[in-house]
Amino acid sequence: MLSRTADSLYWTGRYIERADYLARILEATLRLAAIPTKTGTEAAIWAAALATSGCNCMEGQDLSDGRAIREHLALSVDNPSSIHSCLTRARTNARSVRTALTVELWEAINGAWNGLAEQGRPRRSDEFIDFLQWVKGVTLAVEGATSRTMLRNDAYWFLRLGAAVERADNTARLLDVKYHLLLPEGERVGGQFDYFQWTTLLREVSALTAYRWVYRDGVKPWLVADLMVLNRQMPRSLASCQASIVRYLDRLAVDYDRRGPSQRIASAQMQQFEGADMEQIFQSGLHEYIQGFLHENDRLGAAISDQYLS
Amino acid sequence: MDRGAGMAFDEMDGFGRGPRSAYQKAARWLAEAPPDLLQARSRQAELFFRRMGITFAVYGEAEASERLIPFDVVPRIIGGAEWNGLEAGLIQRVSALNAFLKDIYGPQECLKAGILPSELIRTNPAYRPEMQGRRPPRDIWVQIAGVDLVRTGEDDFHVLEDNVRTPSGVSYMLENREMMMRLFPDLFAEYAVRPVETYVDMLLASLRACAPQSAGPDPTIVVLTPGPFNSAYYEHSFLADKLGAELVEGGDLFVDDDVVFMRTTQGPRRVDVIYRRVDDEFLDPLTFRPDSSLGVPGLMAAYYAGTVTLTNAVGTGVADDKAVYTYMPEIIRFFTGEEPILKNVPTWRCREPDALKEVLSRLDELVVKEVGGSGGYGMLVGPAATKAEIEAFRLKLIAAPDDFIAQPTLALSTAPTLEGGRLVNRHIDLRPFVLSSPQGVTVAPGGLTRVALKAGSLVVNSSQGGGTKDTWVLED
């Protein structure tokens, strides 16, 4: 396969995953911002959403305007990481490797792009929620078309690899922005509002019900952290994302009959999760831990790029 | 039926004497079809094309930069005997084009014999002096040609232009057929329509046969595209897909020791045949335009070394230039020793003073074209132009008469076309695709029928609002 094709597939995977993540963040933020609180909090909630998106491109603008942030994250064509841009870029990438995709997958991605125009510009909050629902539906359709129709060959592994790397990155960012909410027991006992934030955090990653199934307990911040970092049943946890990355890279190594730096980095990173426990992570600092993970994930991205995509 | 198109020959009704034989069943079917059926099918087709992303880009329009080519569901039908005549004419013409190019870049016998003025070649922007004295692998210059035909009467077909650089439109020939079989399966049961799907196999065989000697029994073929922003990108990806070839951009290829390789996830892989949809000037920044980012540095050196086939060969543009076009009848006679089967459209060469005078006095009734132009850009259609447009064009023409030719406004044939739920007559042309290899010259039975959707309009180019139809060649 052409290196450029692999690159486009990898980025198609990343952009679709990012669009989905943004839709979930925005949905949770709308919910969180809707509960009555003291003045000023709403702006803080939107600013947190902006930080969570990993986008620092609203410099110099009024960050107290939730609507502006919402527009920026969802619909802006100037923000390269908005949902609009992600779906457009995913489609541009997919179009340049049209022949590596099944008709069904291409139609799902192209349909998402066509749909962007039909969706127009939602104004009211209820319209906005419909838009986010639509985005989630679209990314699910892409996911379904990928898993149901693509041959399990290198094209598939690159798509999947991109999605897994992006997902790991998103989860880590989300945790990093909210890590102060997830400190161990005793540090700080949350009030009603904190509780709402934790549950919202879980909703952001579609894990509230999962949490209850796994822990059979009330929502406690350190258990939330455990779910998002170490739990292997939780598909968005850092450990699960890492396991997926290792699996896809291994499949590529088998198909191509060669292991390289990216396989070695990914496996070494996976070792970190074996036998780790949340207690230790808290002791050495959750923030530092996440920063370390993000750094390693970047290094892995660069290694993948060197080895396959250029 | 709204005739709207004056007294042009109609593919279905001739000059108004009832359905011609190839159309008899279709005329009955069209008359009996429930009124809403065609309209419903037409909407279905549009939906499908959009979903599939079968689009083309329009240059100079930021807004609608990706558009659908409108598809008309009423097929254009050509009888078997009628086609046989066209096919023979096309084979003759493309054979002559290949012989002409071989000669121009070789001994130049035709110039010595005075068949056409040699400055027409020397000063031609599409002439590539780099190719003088060279031969492409297997000595085939034009492997793929698209010849534009128009019709003015029962037996009057004219060649409007030859396209022997990177002719496009073949994906529409194939997709339109696919669409018609999906929309009207019953019609195909009634008609014996010759299949066009074989084109891909023919093309693959032809590309393989043109591979250089150095290639093994299973040559690696790639399709080279300028990229997703090119107007014909969909077609490039379509062809790569059908051929089972990689769709590459310039950056995917590199040249090492006069051999072309592509960058793959498993390291470099040797390339033998490049079906390039990139113009000559952009192929290799070391030889042609140094600012080209579409090309591959060193590609021409590899080409000269004979390690790679470029389809079509470099320098073929000199043969489809509109100025050279006017000499095609003489070129065909010279190289084949036969009378041309397909006629040229009578053409004034504005480079000749008498012709220029005549053209200037009749600008309002003629079609004036730039000799190097294509795609309907930069031409004047006298009868459809405003006074101001004509006067502006007059100045351009006087300033550089060598750059233009003029032709009478032909009454292009019309074909029944769906508009707002009813059938109207609209002008059409036809672009069949002709393949050449050491094994011979073949024509896909069909082609791209383009239709000018505006009443009375003669401009069929998709960039100017034209649409397409499926083209049926019947098995008689």
Structure, described:
The complex is a heterodimer of chains A (310) and B (476). Chain A is mostly helical and 310 residues long. Chain A is built from 14 helices and no strands. Chain A folds into two domains: 150 residues, no CATH class; 159 residues, no CATH class. In chain A, helix 1 packs parallel to helix 7 and helix 7 runs antiparallel to helix 11. Chain B has 476 residues and is an alpha+beta fold. Chain B has a domain of 64 residues: Dna Ligase, domain 1. Helices cover 31% and strands 24% of the residues of chain B. Chain B contains 15 helices and 23 strands. In chain B, the strands form six sheets. Chain B has a five-stranded mixed β-sheet. A five-stranded mixed β-sheet of chain B has the order 13-5-4-20-21. Chain B has a four-stranded parallel β-sheet with strand order 7-6-11-12, covered by helices on one side. In chain B, a hairpin with a 2-residue loop joins strand 8 and strand 9. Classes of the chains: A mainly alpha (310), B alpha+beta (476). At the A-B interface, helix 1, helix 4 and helix 5 of A face helix 2, helix 9, strand 7 and strand 9 of B.
